[in-house]
């Protein structure tokens, strides 16, 4: 398999690196307002730690993929807490900002109005919104607190509402990172839950950057193969049996 980077690629300075993030002028205003609450003001973003990250390898890959396909990577980010000061939400904001800088079309789903699985028909507005976002996306980023050694109910409820039968690609084990003692990892400011409290500099923060960078690289490589990976023997057999059953019923009273 050939390299997805030019063999003689040299490291560019921050000033030389392309600006891949979707600008306000090219963005859809409604989508920006609804799904990108993580965006910073231009003044803040210019001096922000994410803007100063050396991400040239991932940016080069994303830049080449965008030029080749004309399509940005579409990423759905889910978080698993409804608390006012939710650390998974704060972490989700930071992940979104990194992915945004890498040129992704990032959309953050708010689970606050999603009903409990099977408590309402799947025609419910929030259920349809989540399913539509999942179908739209090339990949998910999942961020959840640990509760009794497992996912939170808020997070699992979102996953449970996304049916495999609609053609979604099953999640596979990917790169994981944890944030020990999350309550100590963020600034005290912004404690009202509006997402302005920022992740403090640490090795854990560096690993969050690693995860987002590797997510972009992996998704660029895998995106052309999604259809093949979603083609499963058991589901082909199920479709065939259903078609044969319907065929047997044609013309019968």
Automatic annotation (TrEMBL):
Molecular function terms from GO: oxidoreductase activity, acting on NAD(P)H, quinone or similar compound as acceptor
Gene3D superfamilies hit by this protein: 3.40.50.360
Residues annotated as domain NADPH-dependent FMN reductase-like: 74-175
Superkingdom of the organism of origin: Eukaryota
PANTHER family reported in the protein's UniProt record: ARSENIC RESISTANCE PROTEIN ARSH (AFU_ORTHOLOGUE AFUA_5G15030)
Protein name: Related to arsenic resistance protein ArsH
């Amino acid at each position: 398999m050939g390299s997805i980077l030019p063999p003689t690629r040299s490291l560019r300075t921050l000033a030389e690196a392309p600006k891949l993030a979707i600008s306000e002028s090219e963005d859809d205003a409604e989508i920006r307002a609804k799904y990108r609450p993580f965006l910073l003001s231009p003044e803040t973003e210019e001096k922000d730690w994410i803007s100063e990250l050396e991400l040239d390898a991932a940016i080069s890959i994303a830049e080449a993929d965008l030029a080749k396909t004309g399509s940005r990577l579409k990423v759905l980010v889910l978080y698993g807490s409804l608390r006012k000061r939710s650390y998974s939400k704060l972490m989700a904001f930071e992940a979104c900002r990194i992915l945004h800088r890498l040129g992704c079309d990032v959309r953050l789903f708010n689970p606050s109005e999603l009903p409990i699985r099977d408590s309402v028909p799947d025609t419910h507005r929030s259920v349809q919104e989540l399913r539509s976002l999942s179908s739209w996306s090339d990949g998910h980023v999942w961020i959840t607190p640990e509760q009794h050694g497992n996912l939170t109910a808020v997070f699992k409820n979102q996953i449970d509402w996304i049916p495999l039968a609609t053609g979604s690609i099953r999640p596979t084990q990917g790169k994981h990172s944890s944030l020990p003692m999350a309550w100590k990892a963020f600034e005290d400011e912004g404690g009202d839950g509006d997402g302005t409290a920022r992740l403090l500099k640490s090795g854990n923060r560096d690993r969050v950057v690693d995860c987002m960078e590797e997510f972009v690289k992996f998704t660029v490589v895998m995106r052309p193969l999604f259809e093949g990976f979603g083609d499963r023997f058991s589901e082909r057999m199920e479709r065939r049996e259903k078609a044969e059953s319907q065929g047997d019923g044609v013309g019968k009273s």
